[in-house]
Amino acid sequence: MKQVAISNHEVDQSQTVPVVRIDNCSTVPQLFSKRVTDHGNKVAIREKDFGLWNEYTWGDWGDRSRRIGLGLCALGLERGDVCSIAGEVCKEWLFADLGVICAGGVTNGVYPTDSASQVEYLINDSSTRFYFAEDEEQLDKVLEVRERTPCLSHVIIFDMEGLRHLDDDMCISLEDLMRLGDEHEQAHPGAWDHALRGAEPEDLMVLTYTSGTTGPPKGAMISQRNMMFMMVSLQKVFNVYPEDQQLGFLPLAHVAGRMFYTFAVIEAVSVVNLIEDPETMLQDAMEVAPTIHFAVPRVWEKQYSTVTIKLKEGTRLGRLAYQVALNIGEKASKFERDGEKLPLGLRVQRFLADQLVFKNIRRLLGINEARWLSTAAAPIAPEIIGWYWAMGRPMYECYGQTECTGIITANYPGHNRIGSVGKPAPDCEVELSEEGEILMRSPGVIQGYWNKPEKTAETFRQGWLHSGDVGRIDDDGYVYIVDRLKDIIITAGGKNITPSEIENQLKFSPYVSDAVVVGDRKPFLTCLVMIDQENVTKFAQDNDVPFTNYTSLCHTQAVQDLISNEIDQVNSKFARVETIKKFRLIDQLLDPEDDELTPTMKLKRKVVHEKYADLISEMY
């Protein structure tokens, strides 16, 4: 089927405040309403439930969102009120999100892994009036803190399993909220159309809280115009078509999840497939076979590790076939990345390698039908990107922040350089300060931080967003991220070292999940390592290494030697002053509810330094 982008885009930069239009719509409610009207019978959302994929059309999405939005109006929602949504990726999240936005409210995403104390902070900081809780687990957190959240008016529950006898004036089921919406519509004909028309491009639409790696989370204020621009920008860079299928698994509280699973879908009239459970993601990916696939580096690193471990279990002939195919893929991908035609002999070899080896691996990973893969949100080793290219699937690294509503630079077809984060996207500007800090300017740059004027003034200066990242720009305009400005290590000998480069190489190992390099003002570098539980456990079982739990596994000599060998391999790639002299394993199994991890599973460097200060001191 011929793929054609259906949207007409317009970004008028000549105005003092740029005007962004998609299909002659300048706000998300207008565009969403148009999609519902024009494509009511087309499938928009698929969700797996008890092993079955259920389909929901644009008409379904529009109907549920209208009823939810009007239900909120019946409960007293006023334009600009904040509504928080806590839950895993699910259709109700999407329905509620557009219901809030179209009714004139502001949506704030809450990670399902957030603790009760974090929920309390987010409700109070954002002045949340209405709180959507996915299930009993999420409800318990908000009920635990509601006495300390005076701004909270109502709690709406998606899944009432186990809560049928709940009798609480503050709580209402989603079904009952929609019934209220029906009654409100009967009593106020035309209320929905009035709400849709009331949106303005500069209206605040979304609050997205930063991960809080450098202090309390800050609410990034994303306007209608900011997100409309990002929808245009994403389309210009990558192209998303009505026939495209995405796999929805990233948290919707993160800007990337919202950008790809909600707003890119609305822009392109494509389909998002919501997974049943994080544990079933790989199986769901195999069933969906997405045609476009964005994920954070942790996902791609895990896939690479899965293949690496399975190869070690395979036959000698299988490993040889894979290595031969990989060599062919690496040669071919050099031509493919530059958009050049493969020589005939290499083209034949590429075809055979693809049919005999790579196709099965791609099917296992759920990427066999993908036109492109993309990664952002954290550093990634260039070797990982090169591996996917060799496997026959182009991967493009992007760069951006919540504060610019997503991407600001990108590698994309015809403009790609592995190791860089690409060139500025259309209508985006990137410059370097005297200190080498990356400065950004575009219509996607947000208004500032909610109720934090000092932090806003510190980050947004003279029209530029100060990223906090150190970078460089080559002669062809490709941008390279060196590290976070605050994370640069200056050794006792005065040598400047970028820890992320070393950490990325360590995470290339199938046995290392994450790492934090230490050494600021110290005589040498050390490292705290978080092992990959699944792969290291299998290593221990295969080698008859006795252990009782995760902590004892970390303390076995065999595992210590295993990680030491991985570090030695990484050390061989760096200058002597950049090598890791000692390491320790974090012997607690961490999850996003722990202070050390962000909701997107990144180690918080500052927290790790503080919590494991004794362990670090021991190495010196």
What does this structure look like?
The strands form 7 sheets. A 7-stranded mixed sheet has the order 9-8-7-5-6-10-11, with helices on both faces. A 5-stranded mixed sheet has the order 14-15-16-17-18. Strands 19, 20, 21, 22 and 23 form a 5-stranded antiparallel sheet that branches. It has 620 residues and is α/β, with parallel strands linked by helices. The protein has 21 helices and 28 strands. 47% of the residues are buried. The radius of gyration is 25 Å and the shape is globular. Helix content is 40%, strand content 22%.
Task: State the helix count.
Answer: 21
The helix content, as a percent range, equals 40-55%
Task: Determine the mean pLDDT.
Answer: 94
The main pleated sheet reads as: 7 strands, mixed
Oligomer: single chain
The CA-CA distance between the termini, in Å, is 63 Å
Evaluate the radius of gyration: 25 Å
- Give the beta-strand count: 28
Give the amount of beta strand, in percent. 15-25%
Q: For the largest beta sheet, what order do the strands appear in spatially? A: 9-8-7-5-6-10-11
Structural class: alpha/beta
- Report low-confidence residues grouped into runs of 5 or more: 1-5
Descriptors:
620 residues; alpha/beta; seven-stranded mixed β-sheet; five-stranded mixed β-sheet; 40% helix; disordered N terminus
List the helices and strands and how they pair.
Layout: E1 9-12, E2 19-22, H1 28-38, E3 43-49, E4 52-57, H2 58-74, E5 82-86, H3 91-103, E6 106-110, H4 116-126, E7 128-133, H5 136-145, E8 154-157, E9 171-173, H6 174-187, H7 191-197, E10 204-209, E11 219-223, H8 224-238, E12 245-248, H9 255-268, E13 271-274, H10 281-288, E14 292-295, H11 297-313, H12 316-337, H13 344-365, E15 372-375, H14 382-390, E16 395-401, E17 406-410, E18 423-424, E19 429-432, E20 437-441, H15 453-459, E21 460-461, E22 464-473, E23 479-484, E24 489-490, E25 496-497, H16 499-507, E26 512-518, E27 525-531, H17 533-542, H18 550-555, H19 557-571, E28 580-585, H20 605-611, H21 613-619
Parallel strand pairs: 3-13, 5-6, 5-7, 6-10, 7-8, 8-9, 12-13, 14-15, 15-16, 27-28
Antiparallel strand pairs: 1-2, 3-4, 10-11, 16-17, 17-18, 19-20, 20-22, 21-22, 22-23, 24-25, 26-27
